[in-house]
Structures are given as structure tokens and as C-alpha cells.
Amino acid sequence: MKLTQEEKDILAGKQGETMAKILKTVVDFGDVFGANKLVPITHASHFVTSFGIGLLKPLFRTMDEIIDAGIKTKEPFTVDPRPIDYANVKCNLLNKLVFSKIMYKEQKRYEEQLKKIGLKDDKSFTCTCYFEEVGNLPKKGDILGWAESSAVVYANSVIGARCNRNSGMLDLFSAIIGKVPEFGLLTDEGRKADWIIDIQTSKLPEAQILGSAIGLKVMEDVPYVKGLDRFLGNELTDDVKGYLKDFGAATASNGAVGLYHIDGLTPEAKELGKKLIKKDAKVYTITDKELEKVYKSYPVLWKNVNAKPTLCFIGCPHLSRTQLEHWAKDILSGLKNTGRKKVTVKTILTTSPQIADKFRETELCKELYRAGVKVSSICPLMYTNNPLAGKKPIITCSNKLRTYSSSRFYKSDDILKIITGGNK
Ligand code: F3S
Questions:
Q1: What does each C-alpha distance from 389 to 331, 377, 383, 402 come to in angstroms?
Q2: CA–CA gap between residue 414 and residue 208 (Å, rounded)
Q3: CB of 266 closer than 6 A to ligand 1?
């Protein structure tokens, strides 16, 4: 990699041993992917590691070393959601013990470390840092060093920023150095589509299943989706952005997609159109039948497949304000239709702390709480990803949560029927 004199000086230790090690890691990472140089990050960072899992000893050691050396990130940063929220996601004594003494015993220490190196504020824990309410919102063309897969794919595709799918800790190191290696999705060539996705469905597909089908097919390639604007239109409204957020998270978790283009809708597709498609691009046609096949292929990992669900998570990635209000209204009117006062399954709607705080002041939220639904800013995956919670029959309409835990996936309409008792 071609380095500037300043970078060579840092590597030679002119800004201390810790800075030299941090830069060396970023350079080595770039070398592995054939990068020619480092380029400046132009927008604040977002970290994927938000949980104080005891096993991550090297992370906590590294953070201590960074703090002792007096190093901070160039800009204040945001971070993924917390793994615990005892106030809204109840735990029994045993669960609490497992969380606080074993699983997340370093949570307090890690949050203190994050603060010392530049965490934006105490409310900066969400995977949807790009919501206006949260404020870590890049603009088109910005260069980022993020690692949270759902945020990377959103920033690249819906905003038109440029970011590779970095790993955890690489996001931390590049936020300190203020640079990332230039390769892959940072380049014009790397943003061209390897696949044409031809949407031939009879109605707007469920975002989470369409994203899953495409992710499973193209893996880490770039898809160019044609025919979706028939249903979504050509403007990035709040509803459309919510759809694309969930769609993208599913492409990124069921496959490893870091960027997609939607014909006539996402910024680069609007600007460059078919010029974004590589000459030898492969074609994947999506029909109603194909989506049903993908949906039916999801395994049920519960011990007892006939168990009654005990918990439902909606909002992975975190819900936007518009999505939260939609769900709240749908649940309350679903309960009215079935003549019930409370949901049949304990339900948690997850959203960013800023949106949750505002929403909790509303009458709609109070009604929702009376109906047995809670609003939290937890990461459902971190909550379920342990031997105790993992055994529970949990349901979700998040394909990311389904993929990384034993939670059972249902379509949104079916989830609504289950929790409001409308499936009887
Ligand atoms: Fe966000 Fe946690 Fe889901 S980070 S995307 S809520 S797994």
C-alpha cells in the first residue's frame, strides 16, 4: 500500500506505540484486500461492538491501552444497542444472574471505556444510528468506517455513502486513525452490480423474505433490483425507507450483501441506471412461488415445534418512528377486533432510545403498555443469544434474528394475528 509521509511516521512510532499498532492493523487489513491507499473518513463512526461479553478480553485490554495512551476517536461515535434492558424486557432471577455475572459481566466497564474514547452520549445505543432522531446520518458520497452489517448496507444503498463491510474493532481503529483502506464498495467499480434481480411478484413482497431470498442467492455480490419500484414508487418516503432498512438487513444477514441498487429509487440507481450493471451480470427472477419456497425452507429450531410462544420481538433492526406507530396502531386495532384486552404473547417493540423516549410520552404508547406490549432499545439478538433465553419459544418477523438465534420467523401479518389472538 502506498503510504503518506505522515502515515509512515505514525508507523515508525512518532505518535506513540499504540497509534503505530492501530495504524498497522488498518494497513494490514487493507493489504489483505489489495487496497492501494488509505482514504479519509468523512463522517462519524458507528461501532458494532456494544456488549461487554466477558470472553472479549482482548477488546477490553485494547480499550484500556487506548485510554492510557490518551487517544480518542476523531469524531464522537454511536454504537449498536445494549444487550440488556431489565425495565422493559423482564428477566427472572436466574437470567439476571447469567447476564450480570457471566454473559455481560463487563458491560459497565466497557460502557465506561466507550465514553472515555468518544461515545456521543448515553442514548447512542442503536443499530439505526442513521435515523434523523439519532443524528449519525451520513450524506451521499461520504466515506465511512462502519461494521454493523444492517447499517452498512443501508448507508451504502439508501443514502449512497461508501462503506465496506468492516469487522468489529476495525471500526474502532479506523475511527481513531480517521482513515480506511480504499477497496471494494469504496470504488466505482466495486459498486457495480453482479446480479439483476427481476421482481415478477403479484404484490409488494414482504421485505424480510425478499431480502432473505436475494441474500441467499447472491451472497456478498451487489444486486440491481428491477421491478420493485412498481410497488414502492420512486421516492424515499418514511415507509419506503423502513421497507428498505428491513430488506437490506435481511440481504446482509441471510447473505453478506453490503450494497444493493433499486431501479428508479435508490440514489445511484436513479443517477446511473443500467450503467451500474456489469456486462456479465447473472439474473435471478423472483416470483410469489420462489418467495414462498424460501419462506418454507426456514428451519424451526425450537425444542418443541408445537410450543406456545412466550415472547415476541419486533424491530431488528430497530423500528423507525413511523414503523413503531404502525405496529402500535395495528396491534391495538387487532386486539379490538378479537375482543381482547391484552396480547396473547409478551411482545417487545424495539427502537432507538431517542424514538422510544418520545414515544413513551404518547397516549398511544400508554395504551400499548396496558395491552401488554413494551417498547425497548435492547438488541433482541444479544438478549436471545444465551443458553437460557435461547431455549424459550421466541417468535419474530426479523430475518436477521431468525438467522442468528433459535427464534422462529413468521410473516408480519401472521405475527400480528398470533399476538392479537386473531389466528384462532
Ligand atoms: Fe440491530 Fe441487534 Fe438486530 S444490532 S439489527 S437489533 S441483531
A1: 25, 17, 7, 14
A2: 13
A3: no
pTM: predicted TM-score of the whole model, two decimal places: 0.97
269 residue type, one letter: A
Q: Is the CB of 246 under 6 A from ligand 1?
A: no
Tell me what pLDDT residue 110 has: 97
The grid coordinates listed for 343 are 396480547
pLDDT digits (tens, 9 = 90+) for 317-336: 999 999 999 999 999 999 99
On whether the CB atoms of residues 94 and 142 are closer than 8 A, the answer is no
Give the pLDDT confidence of 124-153 residue by residue, as tens digits: 999 999 999 999 999 999 999 999 999 999
> What's the mean pLDDT in 266-276?
98
Which residue's CA is the closest to the ligand 1 atom numbered 2? 379
Q: Which residue has the cell 420493485?
A: 228
Inter-residue contact 159 to 140 (CB < 8 Å): yes
* Cell numbers describing residue 233: 414508487
Between the CA of 318 and the centroid of ligand 1 the distance, in Å, is 7
> 300 with 408: CB under 8 angstroms?
yes
